[in-house]
């Protein structure tokens, strides 16, 4: 799961006034006028979250884990504004557990000027070791969460797609509309 704040105020899903489901994405409209669009990208392990009509100057994003409960269970680093998080007990996929053990999170605009806050947060049974904030004020933000079998794979997914994410969304929409 994930959570985000705008101007240091947490955004609650209970503030959603309308949800529209399209074949290629989910769009949530919030009471204060901004929109969250969630898209699973094709052919990569990546989730794109776009925030539009942002009424503030600062957006912070925080990934949550339901099966990790402390910093000792993960490895973390930040590189050029992208945070990479790996599971200590699953640094490499195995035949028994073939899922990716790493995620990377990037925020645009200003991916090179984003910065991470290493601080634990617990929400119910979920745990987050880090939050990433944009240092660039904008009305539109894109947050990309990519998964990989290695930290480098997750990082490369995020760093390459974040530069051209509108094209990835357009390709997914065209593929699904063509079905």
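Sequence proposed for the structure above (179 residues):
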């Amino acid at each position: 799961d994930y959570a985000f704040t705008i101007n240091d105020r947490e955004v609650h899903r209970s503030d959603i006034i309308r949800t529209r489901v399209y074949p290629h994405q989910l769009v949530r409209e919030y009471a204060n006028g901004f929109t969250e669009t969630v898209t699973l990208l094709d052919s990569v392990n990546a989730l794109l979250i776009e925030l539009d009509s942002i009424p503030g100057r600062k957006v912070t994003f925080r990934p949550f884990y339901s099966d990790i409960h402390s910093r000792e269970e993960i490895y973390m680093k930040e590189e050029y504004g992208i945070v990479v998080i790996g599971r200590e007990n699953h640094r490499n996929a195995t035949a028994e557990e073939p899922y990716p053990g790493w995620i990377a999170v990037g925020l645009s605009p200003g991916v090179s000027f984003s910065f991470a806050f290493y601080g634990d947060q617990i929400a119910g049974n979920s745990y987050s070791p880090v939050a990433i904030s944009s240092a660039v004020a904008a009305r539109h933000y894109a947050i990309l969460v990519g998964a990989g079998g290695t930290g480098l794979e997750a990082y490369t997914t995020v760093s390459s797609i974040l530069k051209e994410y509108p094209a990835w969304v357009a390709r997914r929409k065209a593929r699904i509309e063509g079905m």
